[in-house]
Design brief:
Layout: H1 3-18, E1 46-49, H2 64-70, H3 84-95, E2 97-102, E3 105-108, E4 119-125, E5 134-139, E6 144-149, H4 154-161, E7 173-179, H5 182-188, H6 192-211, E8 216-218, H7 226-233, E9 241-250
Antiparallel strand pairs: 1-6, 2-3, 4-5, 4-7, 5-6, 7-9, 8-9
Amino acid sequence: MDPLPLERAREFLKDHIRQAVDFAATDQSQGLPAPPIAKPCPPDARRIALAKPGEWQGIGEVDLEVAIRDRHSQRRYTREALGLDELSFLLWATQGIRKRVNPGTALRTVPSAGARHAFETYLCVLNVAGLEAGLYRYLPVEHELAHLATVTDLGERLTTATLGQAFAGQAAVTFVWACIAYRMEWRYGLASHKVIALDAGHVCQNLYLACEPIGAGTCAIAAYDQDAMDQLLGVDGKDEFTVYLAPVGKV
């Protein structure tokens, strides 16, 4: 491999890591309102209520030490459907809101720089009891799902978009996290893009751990066709774009 492109990439990464925040120049410091903490639900979307903490059924208990020890990437899944309460639990564990601070800020179940939480959670549902296959988006404020589209060849499109990683299209559901960068840029300017990448790791690690008590597994995916994934989600690829994926299935 040619070392010059690698060296340039490393310098680019280090420059972003070193990037200091000029708080005097951010939109927050200029008094501009914070962007919403979540995208609004499309007015014509069918909404599905999800069980809230304390209400869901069939969620086992696993000691944290055991969950951390046993956590590993799983790429093979059984044909057993994921339960809707189990999906609700995973969504709460990865992006659930614990407390609204103000219209532009919320505390969630995962850490985020400045509590900015730049991600939207999309679900490519293939085998979840009580849900028709298709594309959904999590509504964290309401703890609901919005049905966005029925995609007849969803599994095949996922496999193609993840560069032939067939398990992405064979899981019960594939989580896809898309970034609305301005949520973070509003506060941190050019330094935002480092902490957005860090936040993605926080979210996915919670998914790994939350899979343990429901007998499921996941495997993070960062290799994908950017345009194909953005088109599948129906996002513009500029103000909102795919960052990370994680299929989930019973193991």
